[in-house]
Amino acid sequence: MHPLKGRRIFHKGVDLAAPYGEPVYSAGNGRVISAGYSPGYGWFVRIRHKGGYSTLYAHMSRILVRKGETVRIGQRIGKVGSTGTSTGNHLHFELQKNGRLLDPVEWFGGRF
């Protein structure tokens, strides 16, 4: 059940609770294909990686990279926040391969 909309909605990623302002790091080397603000995701960054993979980081309080920028694994790309459609400080993380959503928990071996 969506906490703000009061109905069942498919959740595209995983939400990781973290304190406001904590750094957000790139999960891999790649290029920023979009970075900005949307009503749902708030401040967000999407990165394209090799092999058809892409990652999305959302609800941030601040973004530290720009569209077209090359990023390295572990590079700071933003700060945790609660922007967009959000009920508290967290990072929303999505993983895709060739435009198809993957379960980040399975990909990272359930370490979340």
Automatic annotation (TrEMBL):
Transmembrane feature ranges: none
CDD domains according to UniProt: M23_peptidase (cd12797)
GO MF: metalloendopeptidase activity
Residue ranges of domain M23ase beta-sheet core in the record: 10-104
InterPro entries xrefs: Cell_wall_metabolism_enzyme (IPR050570), Dup_hybrid_motif (IPR011055), M23ase_b-sheet_dom (IPR016047)
PANTHER family registered for this protein in UniProt: MUREIN HYDROLASE ACTIVATOR ENVC, PEPTIDASE-RELATED
Name by which UniProt lists this protein: M23 family metallopeptidase
Organism: Phocaeicola vulgatus
Organism classification: Bacteria, Pseudomonadati, Bacteroidota, Bacteroidia, Bacteroidales
